[in-house]
Amino acid sequence: MQEIYILRLGHRPERDKRITTHVALTARAFGAKGIFVSTKDEVLENSIRSVVDRFGGDFTIETGTKWRDFMRKFDGIKVHLTMYGTHIDDGIPKVKADVRNKMLIVVGAEKVPPEVYQWADYNIGVGNQPHSEVAALAVFLDRYQDRQALQKDFEGNTTVIPCERGKNVVIKDSE
């Protein structure tokens, strides 16, 4: 199975804390192995690690990543999600045909520098209208994994049991 990582560019802690948190949570829920964030933010790191500790999974977070060096040196497929790229329906088959064992998905916060478009192997347009990077990431990961990403069992201490009404949460004893 291909390892999927996310690179979040332009995180502004005071303005983007909820959106970047949601990008990380979406990445984890849809099967990514980790997220790298261009701005150092220990509060974000602690928040995501707390979710992983409680709900399980093999997901890492690193903030303060020097994204230019990281992106240039990444040894796998580089996919940039944008509203300007190849339409997702046309782009996903091309990405799936690329057999490298790791993928880096780049999502921006503010205006993305031109080199991201140049260094990406694929610039994938998830619609051609302004939209949320959280939505773009979820749609891409769901379609890329043939709508199977949400079937994963994380085996954490906290488990949500699906039910039609109410909340059914099971918390395992820590003993």
Automatic annotation (TrEMBL):
One Pfam family cited in the UniProt record for this chain: Trm56
EC class of the enzyme, as a word: transferase
Reactions catalysed according to its record: cytidine(56) in tRNA + S-adenosyl-L-methionine = 2'-O-methylcytidine(56) in tRNA + S-adenosyl-L-homocysteine + H(+)
EC number assigned by the record: 2.1.1.206
GO function term, MF aspect, one: tRNA (cytidine(56)-2'-O)-methyltransferase activity
Physiological role: Specifically catalyzes the AdoMet-dependent 2'-O-ribose methylation of cytidine at position 56 in tRNAs.
PANTHER family: TRNA (CYTIDINE(56)-2'-O)-METHYLTRANSFERASE
Stored NCBIfam families: PRK03958.1
Name listed for the protein in its UniProt record: tRNA (cytidine(56)-2'-O)-methyltransferase
Organism: Methanomassiliicoccus intestinalis (strain Issoire-Mx1)
